[in-house]
């Protein structure tokens, strides 16, 4: 409690903690203090931003603090504002003073989308930055992708080679200017330039647009890496890109000039989602936008499309010369490799897509993919955390004096570094089967340690010893290595977002992950009440061929049906999907327990159901048949569902398949059966949680794991749980998939060692 006379004038020190450095926060405080006629100063310290004000009433102080919270610049994340009374000082004015040398933690700002003021600058013919593609200010532009080292000053970024002209220096040193201390500030006279073949400036834009308008593909050097661009409305261009990418069905992401342009094309139901697309983070937003004027080959297997706005002036200005409102903007990389960031690797790897490269001479120091979100109940739900978010921290409810590194999983990997109550999460790295991606993982680990000035004393890895992340930890660790079970980490990842420390039920539905008993887990019901226990799980069925069953879900389907004694009766349904000799081999593997492992994976269950109802036998990409299963759902109003059996701690879902096969025999539409399947899983989740509550009194439920990227299942489960009196917690700024594992690893260690 802060007590005192509301009308007496006093002096105060205010400390603002959070992401408040490198985003124009001190100039914001300076201008705000001037409106209150305060005298004093503002400076950066190791604890955050420190503000001293004199001659303020307590009422003015509280109003000032409210304005700091409510009016702060884009990119600021205010975690805490605290103040205390101070000795009076006779300052004649309010100043920005030199920052303290800091050994403390400083949050590094992410790359931010071009702001409205900078867009206005590039569109005004009389402005010196008219049509200039590298325009930025303290509210927008590159940050994380160009930083080489701390402190975040120009000479420590890739802008060091561009010396500011006199005009830019004046802006940079003028506290009243929005480019005050904007490290990447530049203009056409002193900054980077674009080039396409021999064309530069606006001619390069015109040449690039001509290629796209004529149905060609273009390699474009963007903010965090290269992209491959084409007209999203041109069937032939999109098909060509699909063929060259060897990408039969996986959807392409689109880019639109701005939210206003997109609004003209979308259905009313999607308009609330525009606010997420139009944020400074500017992620790809996946939504069923309705009928858009784009090629049917953008997402051949579904209706949802991911769209982002033009988040740099370069992209925005390109649209000025295009005939189309939508372009494909997909990562410039070879399959499973990281995105290209320099000209040498781009020419080597992307030339078979197009011989045309729109490049620039501002180096990218750190590759950063586009972030991907969707919405649940009007709130954003992170699927891939990268540009615009990384490396922002999650604030933990418990502090740790040690530096802890969460080394992540094997797929969709990320790294988290934590100290005190800050957990800094890296950008999406990718799947570590690929050597180039493994090298990128090492780069990210080294860079994060350098940027935050940390030396991890504890490395937390997955329980699986053969993951690259686990092996790398053993090779590099100078401290202690601790293992955390994969699905425990999923639970704690979501808990950390909501500040939960105990007394929670965890429903973790996932594809894979080594369990503490040596089997593969993935359909788990945990209870955390002082200790963490596995209460119930999906019944273990043998997964024939190990990882091949994840690539070919028809094998898992055959394996399930064989173990459920349903296969021989329904061979006619599998005959078009799998060879008879393969079925014989699967039976042998399971019966003899050869090259098979027991699994409770919900991911395998959904993929097998997807194969049964869609006829798709192979996962072109992770979870493809499960995605198809969600895509075909019809008659969402029905609540019909199949039954299951509880056998001790195991939930046997044999009746799911019995029911689906029976409905297929009756000629029921597969879309209706798909809905019944989803309803069955949601009802099962709710009933098992009720059983745990009855035994424990616990009323909080966390939903996490890769299967909860299925938004229909997520919404349905959340709704049923809430209708039964549960408080339900889902992810928001951290993915439910393996991209959140590193955070969960760290948080479990912190709570276990309080």
UniProtKB/TrEMBL annotation:
Signal sequence extent: none
Residues of the YrdC-like domain: 202-388
Keyword Zinc: yes
Top-level EC class: ligase
SUPFAM superfamilies in the record: Actin-like ATPase domain, Acylphosphatase/BLUF domain-like, YrdC/RibB
Enzyme Commission number: 6.2.-.-
Active site: 26, 44
Source taxon at top rank: Bacteria
GO biological process, one term: protein maturation
InterPro entries membership: Acylphosphatase-like_dom, Acylphosphatase-like_dom_sf, ATPase_NBD, Carbamoyltrans_HypF-like, Carbamoyltransferase_HypF, DHBP_synth_RibB-like_a/b_dom, HypF_C, HypF_C_2
UniProt pathway: Protein modification; [NiFe] hydrogenase maturation
Keywords assigned by UniProt, alphabetized: Hydrolase, Ligase, Metal-binding, Transferase, Zinc, Zinc-finger
Pfam family, one: HypF_C
Catalytic activity, as annotated: an acyl phosphate + H2O = a carboxylate + phosphate + H(+); C-terminal L-cysteinyl-[HypE protein] + carbamoyl phosphate + ATP + H2O = C-terminal S-carboxamide-L-cysteinyl-[HypE protein] + AMP + phosphate + diphosphate + H(+)
Domain Acylphosphatase-like positions: 11-98
GO molecular function: acylphosphatase activity; carboxyl- or carbamoyltransferase activity; double-stranded RNA binding; ligase activity; zinc ion binding
Residue ranges that the Swiss-Prot or TrEMBL entry lists as coiled coil: none
Family: Belongs to the carbamoyltransferase HypF family.
Protein name: Carbamoyltransferase
